[in-house]
């Protein structure tokens, strides 16, 4: 998802790198490129204009923070604004208290509505809820069967609708059955058409009036870009939807719908479909999505988090070292000690892109906190020179000495080194070449 937009913006930010100072002309030029990248990604043009205006204003108005280079500052501003554009915080689904919750799924045919209903049932069940799937598309008999099939696959109960029933009656009867049988969430899969038509809108409005859903989720195919945004407006005008589910994000390299819909509709994207499998539905996190678009994982939040706990200069020195993949065992130990102020290593590692493997390995070896003590003992047993030049430790006799000194096994020392070099390599890859490019591939 977002690959093409991310590549384009990556190129733009590379050019900001090394700019000593931000002035009107280089900001102007950079923002023109950002604007083009967004328009190419099929973002709504009004949204793009507003977005660029806000960034220009903030770039010009801002006191450049000591700790960040001007280029980094621009990336940070773009990042913050992009999080806002994508909806700010992730938005929880709303549930009723004491009575069954009703979620009404609406959208055009082929948008992924029925599949999403199944995925949502799966997600809710994992959260310990008892979903009830209700097919209310009586015009396409195959739709009823499609939902029953999904329900059977998931082993979730479904309402026995028949094609000669009125959808409003189906919705009412299903809700009554949910009350009777103790289901928590009624998932109403409504009819879709190829185009918006008035009788359908009226029917959806009648269902809404009959069962007062907590959520009316508009399901849209992200790959249709602005088309999805336009259609969502029509649905919103009639139904006052509560949120959007963007499907097929796995195939959407541009991100135009995701980046426009919140601003245009004022309604958040709550969930995203990431594939055809029933487990491929995720809660939408604007901050993670922005990080992904800007190709930096959550490095910015890592810097921010570190800034809170460490003195600013220290944090930046560390952040920059990480970006340049010049991070050595001295830094590692220093950071481990500072982590006690920040929280668990696990929490921090979650923010570093590509850390999943390392976390898993550490997790397999021992609980993270105990592991920290062991790791620190091993680092303490290294000489200063070894800590500064970790490559020296590739020598097995040095590894043996460190193992003896720290009371750990040689395998543990070897594992620490493997993880450390793996981490360095990941950082290098993530930063697009690390040391080679002098300042690394990270926008500076
Ligand atoms: P409906 O007519 O709106 O109910 O659409 P369906 O649920 O039948 O989905 C239409 C097609 O889109 C099916 O082939 C689904 O497998 C596919 N689909 C739905 N959601 C996703 C998704 O998130 N990613 C991908 N790749 N395909 C999806």
UniProtKB/TrEMBL annotation:
Cellular localization per UniProt: Cytoplasm
Domain of life the protein comes from: Bacteria
Binding site for GTP: 107-114, 189-193, 247-250
GO terms (BP aspect): SRP-dependent cotranslational protein targeting to membrane
Enzyme kind, highest EC tier: hydrolase
Region feature Disordered, mapped onto this chain: 387-409
Key words, A-Z: Cytoplasm, GTP-binding, Hydrolase, Nucleotide-binding, Ribonucleoprotein, RNA-binding, Signal recognition particle
Family: Belongs to the GTP-binding SRP family. SRP54 subfamily.
Name the UniProt record assigns to this protein: Signal recognition particle protein
Organism expressing this protein natively: Megalodesulfovibrio gigas (strain ATCC 19364 / DSM 1382 / NCIMB 9332 / VKM B-1759) (Desulfovibrio gigas)
Protein encoded by which gene: ffh
């Amino acid at each position: 998802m977002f690959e093409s937009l991310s590549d384009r913006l990556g190129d733009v930010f590379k050019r900001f790198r090394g700019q000593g100072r931000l002035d009107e002309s280089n900001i102007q030029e950079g923002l023109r490129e950002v604007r083009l990248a967004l328009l190419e990604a099929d973002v709504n043009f009004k949204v793009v204009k507003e977005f660029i205006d806000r960034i220009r204003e903030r770039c010009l108005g801002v006191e450049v923070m000591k700790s960040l280079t001007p280029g980094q500052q621009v990336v940070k501003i773009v990042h913050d604004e992009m999080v806002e554009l994508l909806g700010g915080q992730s938005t929880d689904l709303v549930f009723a208290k004491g009575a069954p919750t009703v979620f009404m799924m609406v959208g055009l045919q082929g948008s992924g509505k029925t599949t999403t209903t199944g995925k949502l049932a799966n997600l809710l069940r994992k959260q310990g809820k008892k979903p009830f799937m209700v097919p209310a598309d009586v015009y396409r008999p195959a739709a009823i069967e499609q939902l029953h099939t999904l329900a059977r696959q998931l082993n979730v109960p479904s309402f026995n609708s028949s094609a000669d029933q009125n959808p409003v009656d189906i919705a009412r009867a299903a809700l009554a059955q949910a009350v009777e049988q103790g289901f928590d969430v009624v998932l109403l899969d409504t009819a879709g058409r190829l185009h918006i038509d008035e009788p359908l809108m009226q029917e959806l409005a009648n269902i809404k009036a009959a069962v007062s859903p907590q959520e009316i989720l508009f399901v849209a195919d992200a790959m249709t870009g602005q088309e999805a945004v336009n259609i969502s407006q029509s649905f919103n005008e009639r139904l006052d939807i509560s949120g959007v589910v963007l499907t097929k994000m796995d195939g959407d390299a541009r991100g135009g719908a995701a980046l426009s819909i919140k601003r245009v509709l004022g309604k958040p994207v709550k969930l995203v479909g990431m594939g055809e499998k029933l487990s491929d539905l995720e809660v939408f996190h604007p901050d993670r999505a922005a990080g992904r678009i800007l190709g930096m994982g959550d490095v910015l939040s890592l810097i921010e988090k570190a800034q809170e706990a460490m003195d600013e200069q220290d944090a930046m020195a560390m952040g920059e070292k990480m970006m340049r993949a010049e991070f050595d065992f001295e830094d590692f130990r220093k950071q481990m000690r500072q982590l006690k102020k920040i929280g668990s290593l696990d929490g921090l590692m979650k923010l570093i892109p590509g850390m999943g493997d390392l976390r898993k390995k550490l997790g397999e070896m021992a609980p993270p906190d105990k592991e920290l003590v062991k790791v620190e003992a091993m680092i303490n047993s290294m000489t200063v020179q070894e800590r500064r030049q970790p490559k020296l430790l590739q020598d097995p006799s040095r590894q043996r000495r460190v193992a003896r000194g720290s009371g750990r096994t040689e395998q543990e020392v070897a594992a620490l080194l493997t993880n450390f070099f793996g981490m360095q390599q990941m950082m290098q890859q993530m930063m697009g070449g690390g040391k080679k490019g002098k300042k690394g591939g990270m926008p500076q």
